[in-house]
Specification:
Helix 14 runs antiparallel to helix 17. Strands 1, 2, 3, 4, 5, 6, 7 and 8 form an 8-stranded mixed β-sheet that branches. Helices cover 49% and strands 12% of the residues. The relative contact order is 0.19. The protein has helices at residues 3-13, 22-30, 76-90, 96-112, 121-137, 160-176, 191-194, 198-218, 222-228, 232-238, 242-255, 272-290, 297-302, 305-319, 334-344, 365-368, 412-423; strands at residues 56-66, 151-156, 181-186, 327-332, 374-382, 388-394, 397-398, 409-411. With 424 residues, it is an alpha/beta fold.
């Protein structure tokens, strides 16, 4: 990084983090679990969907879903915070708050042993519930009445938590109608579009430098560590990077909600101001590493072109009668579905800025990509004219901000033309 670049980065970092935007402060405060960012568990939709225009009946669903809630993906995310607490305990310098935190971290670490990155029971429940609502909202798609055949094609990345998410989702559909014919695949054959990460992998180291700088600029660790440890000298000797160590405790705290059966929470060791600063740094980091950032986003969004092509071409084969499918269900990762939504221009994913201090004004990763994030395209056909319209749902809420007329029901001809322009 040259001297001019460093000066420019420093100027960006001196401002107050954008989480101070009133709307995001209110959204986070409504539900403290939302401070968990990408580890935030899925929220049940609370609004009813409007009915399709008269004469239109659903006949096909195209879907991509992130895996459900999980344990952290590596032992280090548990053991580094735990090791510091254990060391302080052996030195006799833990406060009562520190001893209680040690108890909780011991429990959650034992529970996660050998399950790194696996789907948790909550994650299974999230996908079963989404499948149940999909079946309830669009019974015509899954009907086998009057000898109608219902074929559901499921594909997953080769990662176990995604395969189990696919299993939970499709099993629920089969419970609701055992006559549904389901095929399931998890193969390297489809990874070129199910989890293409070439641009993401190229940009992540560069974006990570900026993200680390935000942690050091925005996170203030003194009060946090003084609440855990009685000896300031212990902190100075054992903690090389206080801001980043505090961030590690925040990341550990964020996963507690994904294993809610333990009945524990860790966010209470932080003040609201500390959580806002930690969340803002995490929010900005994810925006730059998988979002539509003007700095890094073009290559990342390009990763989603093969997936969007697959969605469009498969759907068009169904619309034109070349394939007999009722649903195409895909299961993968946040780092795939977010670039897809960015490429499509959906909700927060259409918000593009360069300045890190403006990211949270239009981007909230806790609501954009919680666990089990899903994108659903519901296809309807007019029973007389044959005209096809499409409803797009992001986390089971209508998408209304696409640059195509007709929201929330878009003409397939217009939508297809728009999507093709994005990947061709």
């Amino acid at each position: 990084m040259n001297f001019i670049h460093k000066l420019g980065l420093l100027a960006l970092l001196l401002a107050t983090p954008a989480v101070q935007a009133q709307n995001n402060k209110e959204v986070l405060a409504e539900n403290p679990d939302r401070y968990g960012g990408i580890y935030h568990s899925y929220e049940h939709p609370t609004t009813e969907l409007s009915k399709a225009p008269k004469g239109y009946k659903p006949f096909y669903i195209s879907h991509y879903g992130r895996h459900g809630s999980r344990w952290h993906s590596s032992l280090s995310k548990y053991m580094e915070p735990l090791a510091l607490l254990r060391s302080a305990d052996s030195c006799g310098v833990l406060t009562p708050t520190g001893r209680e935190l040690l108890r909780k971290v011991e429990i959650v670490t034992r529970d996660a042993d050998g399950r790194w990155g696996d789907l948790s029971p909550r994650g299974v429940g999230e996908h079963r519930a989404i499948a149940g609502r999909m079946y309830e909202n669009y019974p015509e798609v899954f009907s086998t009445c009057r000898d109608r055949e219902c074929h559901v094609e499921c594909r997953s990345t080769v990662v176990i938590r995604c395969i189990l998410s696919m299993a939970a989702f499709s099993e629920r559909l089969k419970e609701l109608n055992p006559e549904i014919e389901v095929t399931r695949e998890a193969s390297q054959k489809y990874m070129y579009y199910m989890n293409n990460g070439k641009g993401r992998n190229y940009q992540r180291p560069r974006a990570g430098i900026v993200g680390d700088s935000l942690i050091h600029a925005w996170v203030k660790p003194d009060r946090f560590f003084s609440s855990l440890f009685t000896d300031k000298k212990f902190c100075e000797e054992r903690i090389d990077d206080p801001q980043y160590m505090m961030y590690k405790y925040y990341i550990l705290a964020s996963i507690f909600q994904d294993v809610e059966y333990l009945g524990l929470s860790m966010f209470d060791v932080f003040t609201r101001e500390e959580l806002e600063a930690l969340w803002s740094a995490e929010n900005a980091y994810r925006y730059m590493t998988m979002g539509p950032s003007l700095r890094f986003g073009d290559m990342i969004m390009a990763d989603a072109r093969p997936l969007l092509r697959n969605i469009v071409e498969t759907a068009d084969d169904v619309v034109t009668g070349k394939r007999d499918l009722s649903a195409s269900l895909r299961f993968g990762h946040d780092s795939t579905i977010v670039p897809l939504m960015c490429l499509m221009g959906i909700d927060d994913c259409a918000y593009r800025v360069f300045d890190v201090n403006k990211i949270a004004e239009g981007w909230n990763l806790s609501m954009t990509t919680p666990m089990a994030t899903n994108l659903q395209l519901i296809f309807f056909r007019h029973h007389k004219t044959g005209d096809v319209i499409v409803r797009i749902l992001h986390n089971e809420h209508d998408v209304k901000a696409l640059p195509v007329e007709g929201a929330p029901f878009y003409r397939w001809a217009d939508l297809k033309q728009y999507f093709q322009s994005l990947y061709e």
